[in-house]
Amino acid sequence: MKRIEKLKIQSPLVVCITNDVVKNFTANGMLAAGASPIMSGEKAEAHDLMHAASALLINIGTADRAKVELMDRMMEAANEKGKPIVFDPVGYGASDFRVDITEDLLSRHQVSLIKGNGGEMLALSGAESSLKGVDSTEQTDTAEIADAVYSRFKIPALVTGKVDALATENGIVTMFNGHSLQGKITGSGCLLGALTAGFIGLEKEFTAEAVVDAVSYYNLCAECAAAQMSRPAPGTFISHLIDELYLSEDRLLQDRTVKGL
Ligand SMILES: Nc1ncnc2c1ncn2[C@@H]1O[C@H](COP(=O)(O)OP(=O)(O)O)[C@@H](O)[C@H]1O
Ligand SMILES: Cc1ncsc1CCOP(=O)(O)O
Fold it and tell me: Is 187 annotated as a binding residue?
């Protein structure tokens, strides 16, 4: 079965421990694409939720001390049950708190994919980075950044931007789809993290193909969304993007532009 069809039929359950800004947008985007999101605020339900789930998303965008405990318990349960984890270090480098919690969680749990924008991921690699809050102003090539993060952690690394890059033990894949309006709505990268967890969850473990399809499908839907609009602008783009995630099918992936897979 093709991957998009499989997502829509199997609807993998993804536990999303994500930030307060994007919860609603993430849930709507996941549902539209065919996945089944569940958000949680209670660590006591970690084992039950991760038993039923196909994957876990951890996004530190509005983490506080209590949420870090929740993330810790969810990651522990996911590792125990062999469920893949996607980790999104939103705003890494913007504060010592974000750096400390990321380093701690990544040192104590096994993660299948780390994903973030250029600024976050360059900082995570240990280099000087330009980040303004949660937004990247980084000009460094995303492929170079992905490679640097992979070299540091030996965990597959996805770096987003105009060009997206995935680094794994097999080298670098670059992906060229997407629309500039994705950079003008909040939660664009966060939703991609959740979708990626759904695509990896379908396969039960990380595969580069699943991540490349997740990124390409999302970005091609964004291109289609913008093409529907007579005056492309952020407000209506959000609705069109959700609609395209719902309406599009596997054949859309024939239009993807990918190098290195
Ligand atoms: N200028 C752009 N052109 C095409 N796609 C983009 C552009 N900026 C961001 N994207 C896409 O938007 C999504 C989010 O990327 P990004 O803006 O880097 O993340 P974040 O929202 O975490 O800062 C990715 O799918 C990426 O490919
Ligand atoms: C604005 C903001 N502040 C904390 S988390 C967040 C959302 C960031 O979402 P994204 O990185 O996907 O644009």
Answer: yes
For residue range 71-128, what is the model confidence (pLDDT) as tens digits? 999 999 999 999 999 999 999 999 999 999 999 999 999 999 999 999 999 999 998 7
* pLDDT, tens digit, 9 for 90 and up, residues 132-141: 777 777 788 9
Report how far residue 134's alpha carbon sits from residue 119's, in angstroms, rounded to the nearest whole number. 9
Given the cut 0.90, state whether the ipTM is greater than it. yes
pLDDT bin (cut points 50, 70, 90) of residue 230 is very high
Asked whether residue 168 is marked as a ligand-binding residue, the answer is no
Q: Confirm or reject: Cβ of 61 under 6 Å from ligand 2.
A: yes
Taking the C-alpha atoms of residue 246 and residue 261, their distance in angstroms, rounded to an integer, is: 26
Q: Is 260 in the pocket of ligand 1 (CB under 6 A)?
A: no
Q: Which domains can be identified in the chain, with CATH numbers?
A: 3-252 (3.40.1190.20)
CA dist., res. 138 & res. 163, Å (int): 12
Q: How far is the CA of 90 from the centre of ligand 2 (A)?
A: 7
Indicate which ligand has the atom closest to the C-alpha of 121.
1
Q: Flag whether 50 is marked binding.
A: no
